[in-house]
Design a protein that fits this description.
heterodimer, A: mainly beta, Immunoglobulin-like, 4-stranded antiparallel sheet, 0% helix, B: 111 residues, 6-stranded mixed sheet, 5-stranded antiparallel sheet
Chain lengths: 113, 111
């Protein structure tokens, strides 16, 4: 059964460093998303991406964040200068039809020291 | 104001003891309501989508129902492997298809 994959599973970084989180969505899906979940809190929407451009972004997704689909399979989230409050689980999701269910990856746990 | 409120926050059940989880939502127009299961340290796993009031979906011991203001996830004769956090999320007609999640209900089923 096709699934969304994410790498790395855990990333530890120093405050102020850049990180890139990687995702491989399900192959025939067209819409891609990033969400995050701070420990003990709700899953929060960050950004949606379709046809090589951002469709919608939340207030969390400021100038420090960017997304890219560098090739036909990968979808990345970059944080330029990490802050302590960026520590969270980051989930990638994808769907073929945006009105239908989104399928989530296993997540990347980002720890900013 | 929270769009999605789930109750209770936590639920401890004996194996075989059926129960229901509630998801109340306040949106201007509902495109869809989604139930996910989340195990500790893992990503949400899709369970059901409901689109209109009166709709019901079933999968094994789980049954989801929808009204105009809330959804219920019924767990019938639960087993220990049903222990997880159950998340409810809504997709609003006015939004660009993003999911807005509730805080979840953590279910623990004791053998």
């Amino acid at each position: 059964e096709p699934e969304v994959t994410q790498t790395p599973s855990h990333q530890v970084t120093q405050m102020g460093q850049e990180v890139i989180l990687r995702c491989v969505p399900i192959s025939n899906h067209l819409y891609f998303y990033w969400y995050r979940q701070i420990l003990g809190q709700k899953v929060e929407f960050l950004v949606s991406f379709y046809n090589n451009e951002i469709s919608e972004k939340s207030e969390i997704f400021d100038d420090q964040f960017s997304v890219e689909r560098p090739d036909g399979s990968n979808f990345t989230l970059k944080i330029r200068s990490t802050k302590l409050e960026d520590s969270a689980m980051y989930f990638c999701a994808s769907t073929r039809d945006r009105a239908n269910e989104q399928f989530f990856g296993p997540g990347t746990r980002l720890t900013v020291l | 104001e929270d769009q999605v409120t789930q109750s209770p926050e936590a639920l401890r059940l004996q194996e075989g003891e059926s129960s229901s989880l509630n998801c109340s939502y306040t949106v201007s127009g509902l495109r869809g309501l989604f139930w996910y299961r989340q195990d500790p340290g893992k990503g949400p796993e899709f369970l059901f989508t409901l689109y209109s009031a009166g709709e019901e979906k079933e999968k094994e011991r789980l049954k989801a129902t929808l009204t105009k203001k809330e959804s219920f996830l019924h767990i019938t004769a639960p087993k220990p492997e049903d222990s997880a956090t159950y998340l409810c999320a809504v997709q609003e007609i006015t939004n660009d298809y993003k999911l807005s999640f509730g805080a979840g209900t953590t279910v623990t089923v004791r053998a």
